[in-house]
Amino acid sequence: MVQAGDRTPFVSREPERALLRQLLDRMEAGGRALVLISGEPGIGKSRLAQETAAEGASEGVRILTGYCRGGQSSVAYLPFVEILEATARQLPAGTFREALGADAGEMVRLLPALSRSWPHLPSLLDLPLEQERRYFFNSFAEVLDRLSRLAPLMLIIEDLQWADEASLLLLEHLVRRDSQAPLLILATYRDTELDSNSTLAGTLEELHRLRATHRLVLRALDIGATAHMLEALSGQEPPATAVALIYQAGEGNPFFTEELFHHLAEEGTLMDPVGRWRSAPAAAFSVPPAVRLVIERRLARLSAEVQQVLTTAAAIGPSFSFPLLRELVDLEGEAMMRALEEAKRAHIVVSFSAAGESNFRFAHDLIRETLLEGISPPRRQALHLHVADVMERLFAEELPERSPDIANQLLLAGSAADAHRSVRFLLLAGDRALATVAFEDGFRHFDHALTLLRNGDGPDSAYARFRLGLALRGLGKWDRAVNSFGDALNQYMEIGDSAAVGHVCAELALQLFYARRFAECGEIVNRGLAAIGDMVSADRVLLQCIGGRLFSFAGEFERGDELIRRSVTTAEELGDDRLLGVALLGSTMHHWAWVQPASALERADRAIDLTRGTGALWNLADGAPFVQLALVLAGRLDEVTRLGEEIEPLARRIGHHGGLMVAGRSRLLVEITSGDLAAVEVSASRDLALCEEIGLPWVPDSYAWLGLVSFWRGDWQAALDAFAQGMKSEGPGTVSGACWAGSVLVLAHLGEEVRCRRMLADPPVELPKPRRPSSLGSWTGFLMGTEAVALLGARDEAASRYDLVLEAIAAGNVLRGYDNRLLEAVAGMAAGAAQRWDVAEGHFQRSLELADTLPHRLDQPDVRRLYAVMLMERGGSGDSAHARRLLMEASSLYRKIGMPRHLQMAQALLTDLAPGRSDRVGRPSKSAGLTGREVQVLSLLAGGLTSKEVAEELSLSVTTVQRHIANIYMKIGVRNRAEATAYALRSGLERPTT
Predict the structure, then answer these.
(1) CA-CA to 854 of 20 to 30 Å: which in 64, 79, 348, 780?
(2) What pLDDT shows up at residue 990?
(3) With contact defined as beta carbons under 8 Å apart, do 942 and 980 qualify?
(4) Distances (CA, A) of 374 to 71, 296, 300
């Protein structure tokens, strides 16, 4: 006869085992996969996973197992906590520490004892709560990758139907991760308990879409497999009558089949005294109608002491430790051990080791459920309260870590537990959940605490509401978070807790700033600073810094500058390097937004060193990209690239979408200078997709770069369309105006003087004034507008802008915002318009030197073309030959980059300089105020082309050509095409060649 302690036989499941064998082979070769094993309770999900694990372990695969369990206040990430604990048991301490690597500090979230074992672990990074989880998930995945390099890794996660939401999110992250590390995850769950509206259902739906996911649904055994199982259990072939009876009662469920076998064997009705199967007919067997009744009868045969121990253990949970159980049950140690050994022999519990303690787990949760249902509700509540009392006393030194379990016991105790005590542990459990970035659990704990705080006021209520807001922010529910912060703020103000008011205001202001609710943000900043008063604190620094950024980006330089300066001073008073780094980065953002790169970069290196050195990586990813943008304006492109190699991966890892966006834009600006228009278009498209996906309110900038790419590629109508699209959603602020400026520039190149001047007369931003700070949008509009009026031939207007262009250069600007035009070239155009030829030539020569040394490949041809235009207008000795050389170089570069319309412009100018033509060719038309485009149109008309043919030649619309013709007639004082042709011939114009 089979002995009670023997291993249950494993039968059937050949197709499932074949798939798992295949995945094992693939995993050991470097593949990774998730297998979801589902079925009803007792169908053999865990056993299939265990058999696969045994097979893998024999081939050197490391097996790590974690269990989920029910209860709203149970430990977050429990299966992954147990997986890490199992790793620590399996590996030597030094090897385990190496596997944790630089992520050891993050793993303290799961195993607080690590900080006691290794006191000098890296501290947790200073990240906003909503980003901490992403970083933690990536850190956990990195640890698994390092472990899998030691040996292929198999994770078994049991009872996924009871998993907390945070564990499900981590599982999904691991499966989605793009890694070549060998990893196989087996996850079991009961599909009979799957609610279509549950979190697990949503997770399964997402997981099933992934190629790496495989699904195994276990069905009941057939009668042949049941016979094989009974033969293995008994060691002899069972009679057909017994097989039929047990198969019919057990319905092919392996667990029920085994329970029936043991039950009937223990009754003595299954086998005779010498251990042979009885040959009595089926009617001789008394088979209970349900598995729970079978379990009840088996439990009833255990001694009273064993039943007492098991009932208490069931109140603890699916697993329990010997020390805790010993404190709960009034039995001597030896008697306790005997009781557990008896339960183990009866297949009621199984033993395992964790964290150096003897632990036990119920063989199946149906057994635990049956034990708890066997006692009355009042007794069950009293038992849970007793468990909570003992846990609080036994774990007094580690209450924060144990608080979720204690809170769960108090909730299960119901009215038997004191409400204030339950609130205390719910708040502790909520804080623990936030510390482990389990925001769903945190939300439940704080929300439950608020339901128990019936009067709804007092410090506990305010605290719960504030922490509830943090949990909501971590879940991405920003509007609800703002409301919860607001409720907490009001309660703290009623209480008169100024420090708490300041702290809540700092969190709420940051929330409103990112949500672009600027008016409310300003109100909260002022409210918080008023509450703090003269108190020097970290919250004061943060409020000043947030307020400074707010007013700066909203277009109020003086208020922004004052608050930023105060934040730096307050941080220095506190002697807090992290806060000082944050404040200095705020200063960089402020001065960049006002096109003052020299001031922006003055202490940027120190700011980066401070934030990096204090582990404030969120702040680093938040501010360093603006350092990159300031470096772009200063023309320090190599430094932009080097810093980006650190910041972009960091922003991506911690989930700082704003930092990722700005760092990506810095890279895009460097790509502009490289002349790689395809790369610029890809980056601009990705930037637009990121803004739209995340809901970042900076879409107009994306359209500005898409428009510029179209402009450089020669599709000028597409450029105007992109700029128009951007202007639709452009709001006020320091960075507004780029799409307007781009439109002005393209219209000037098209010779659309009327439309261009109409836009110049109605700018969406206030243009710069001498010796006054002006925003990025203002300067961009002014500097692009300067180029536009020069192209239109408005000499006096272009010349009048020269001193302000020099002022921008004096502030440290080498490049213009958005399109990266060298400011020396813009200054050259303005000086040329004033006919200050030597000054203009100096600017163009410096532009050429900068374009070649940076290098700025996109401006290399443009500077040469503009310099040539200046030389042609000056008309001095040798200017024509010099201009010809520059234009030939520009043509070659335009052709290489792929700028056909700019190439046409250069070639048209070369035509004017053809041998045999006067050095002064084309100047009569210039003196008449014709633009470069109008000169092209006039020369084509003189060559006999129709309006349609001119449009095709210049890639313009017929309407645009006709508008040009009307302007030409007006400027040169003619009435028809014949008179215009005669004028063109007198001026030496003819059809340009290509």
Answers:
(1) 780
(2) 57
(3) yes
(4) 19, 8, 11
Question: For position 915, what pLDDT does the model report?
Answer: 63
Polymer length in residues for the chain: 994
- Looking only at the bridges linking them, the beta strands covering 32-39 and 213-217 are parallel
Helix (H) or strand (E) holding 806: helix 802-810
Q: Bridge partners of 37?
A: 188, 216
| Distance (Å) of CA 881 to CA 246, 851, 877, 917 | 106, 22, 9, 12
Residue 149 lies in a domain: yes
- Residues 634-678 have pLDDT tens digits of 999 999 999 999 999 888 877 777 888 999 999 999 999 999 999
Query: Do residues 25 and 158 both lie within one domain?
Result: yes
Q: Based on the domain organization, do 123 and 256 belong to the same domain? A: no
Amino acid at 784: M
DSSP 298-363: HHHTS-HHHHHHHHHHHHH-SEEEHHHHHHHS---HHHHHHHHHHHHHTTSEEEEEETTEEEEEES
* CA–CA gap between residue 809 and residue 830 (Å, rounded): 13
For 329, the 3-state DSSP assignment is coil
Tally of CA atoms within 13 A in the half-sphere of 556 that contains its CB: 14
Give residue 7's pLDDT.
Answer: 53
Instruction: Answer yes or no: are the C-beta atoms of 370 and 292 closer than 8 Å.
Output: yes
Give the CA distances from residue 283 to residues 230, 245, 262, 743, 940, in Å, rounded to whole numbers and listed in that order: 19, 9, 18, 93, 110
Burial class (CB in 10 A: 0-12, 13-18, 19+), 675: buried
**DSSP character string of 528-562:** HHHHHTT---HHHHHHHHHHHHHHHHTT-HHHHHH
Domain closes at, from 287, 316, 335: 287
Distance from chain centroid for Cα 245? 58
Whether the predicted model's global pTM rises above the 0.85 cut: no
Find all residues with CB under 8 Å of 786, minimum gap 6, and list them: 798, 801, 805, 826, 829, 830
Is the Cβ–Cβ distance between 23 and 52 less than 8 Å? no
For residues 420 and 369, membership in a common domain is answered with: no
For residue 368, give every residue at least 6 positions away whose Cβ sits within 8 Å of its Cβ, in sequence order, or none: 314, 318, 362
Which run of H or of E encompasses 186?
strand 183-190
pLDDT of residue 683: 93
My answer on whether 175 and 100 are in the same domain is yes
Backbone φ and ψ of 534, nearest 5°: -90, 0
In a domain, 76, yes or no: yes
Strands (E), 366-420: none
Query: Pairing mode, if any, of strands 62-67 and 349-354?
Result: unpaired
Alpha carbon separation from 195 to 170, 198, 203, 218 (Å, rounded): 21, 5, 12, 19
Q: Check if the beta carbon of residue 82 is closer than 8 Å to that of residue 67.
A: yes
- Taking 70 as the pLDDT cut, the residues of the chain under it are 1-8, 70-74, 125-130, 193, 195-197, 279-290, 353-357, 511, 514-516, 915-928, 957-959, 989-994
Burial of 476 (0-12, 13-18, 19+ CB in 10 A): exposed
Six-digit token string for 160: 């996924």
Classify 187 in phi/psi space as left (phi over 0), alpha (psi -120 to 50) or beta: beta
Dig out the tokens for 769 from the structure.
Answer: 């004034």
Residues 635, 808 contacting (CB under 8 angstroms): no
Tokens of 313: 């253990």
Which DSSP letter does residue 9 get?
P
Please report whether residue 419 resides in a domain. yes
Q: Where are the beta strands (DSSP E) in 319-364?
A: 319-321, 349-354, 357-362
What residue type is 843 in one-letter code? H
pLDDT at 884: 92
Taken in order 452, 457, 462, 468, the sign of the CA dihedral is: positive
What is each CA distance from 326 to 309, 359, 391, in whole angstroms? 9, 12, 12
Q: Which amino acid type is present at position 625?
A: P
Within 13 A of 732's CA, how many CA atoms are on the CB side? Answer: 10
**CATH code of the domain containing 450:** 1.25.40.10
Which range marks the domain in which residue 461 is found?
Answer: 392-494
Contact 821, 790 (CB under 8 A): no
Q: Which residue has the tokens 């050949």?
A: 14
